[in-house]
Amino acid sequence: MPITLDHTIVHARDNRESAEFSAGLLGLEITAEWGPFIAVALSNGVTLDFATIPAEHIAPQHYAFLVSEEEFTAAYARIERRGIEHYADPHRRQPGTINHNDGGRGVYFTDPSGHYLELITVPYGGTPA
Fold first, then answer.
1. 115, 108 in Cβ contact below 8 A?
2. Is 89 exposed, middle or buried, given 0-12, 13-18 or 19+ CB atoms closer than 10 A?
3. Is 125 left (phi over 0), alpha (psi -120 to 50) or beta?
4. Over the stretch 106-117, which tens digit does the pLDDT of each residue have?
5. Fewer CB atoms inside 10 Å of the end CB: C or N, the chain?
6. Which residues have a Cβ under 8 Å from the Cβ of 81 and sit 6 or more positions away?
């Protein structure tokens, strides 16, 4: 059996707020709730399991999502409609725009708990999703 990632726990100030933010922005569904976790399933079966922890214990992480051109267009429209601050670069020097790295499109923004999210349509040095 090949080794694959099954799930990861994402620390959040409010697990419901963060799960709904990510699911809504990416056009996904909340798929399960158990114990302290609210899960959002990605199309490859990996789940993001959001867990509420004290804000002072949250270390911002980076989560990059490879999406199709159509999914990017839809998610970016949601980013703009919601007025989410976003950037073309991870250093936040190019606000309010996207990049066209590797012939695709990409954007950076943060979730309600301060995690750094990235949407890309082409993997670094790769081919389109």
1. no
2. middle
3. left
4. 999 999 999 999
5. N
6. none
Contacts of 55 (CB under 8 A, 6+ apart): 13, 113
Band of residue 22 on the pLDDT scale cut at 50, 70, 90? very high
Inter-helix orientation angle 69-82/15-26, to 10°? 130
User: What residues contact residue 107 under an 8 Å CB cut-off, 6+ apart?
Assistant: 72, 76, 79, 86, 87, 88, 98, 99, 118, 119
- The pTM assigned to this predicted structure is 0.94
CA–chain centroid gap for 33, Å, is 19
* pLDDT value, residue 129: 61
As to burial, measured by CB atoms within 10 angstroms (0-12 exposed, 13-18 middle, 19+ buried), residue 61 is middle
- 100 has pLDDT over 70: yes
- Measured CA to CA in angstroms, residue 13 lies from 54, 101, 108 at distances of 6, 32, 20
